[in-house]
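New to this. Explain these tokens.
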Amino acid sequence: MSNQMYRQQMLDHYKNPRNEGEMDNPTHTSELENISCGDEIKVYLRVKDDKLSDIKFQGKGCAICLASASMTFEDIKGKTLDYISKLDISNVEKLIGIELSPSRKKCAHLGLLTVQNAINNK
């Protein structure tokens, strides 16, 4: 996929985030903020049989933060908690398909970190 196609995909996820909203009776929740830029993500997880059966999120922040959260959450739904806990920024970068500066990596990583925080702090 070309950089332009990845950028279009990110813009679509930013304008139309998947899994956005609140969840009744989540099994796990977490909220994190990137203090260097003000991005915020709150996740609501439903875990069943050690798998992420559903995820919802609310967030405010830059396009990279919200689009990468939407893309990441869509990708990890249905995966095991062990699999999710082993992911890192390189997995997110591969998913979004564009190279990021160090400061933008923090924006792109926030969604995954918030999910991992929810899983680890049950």
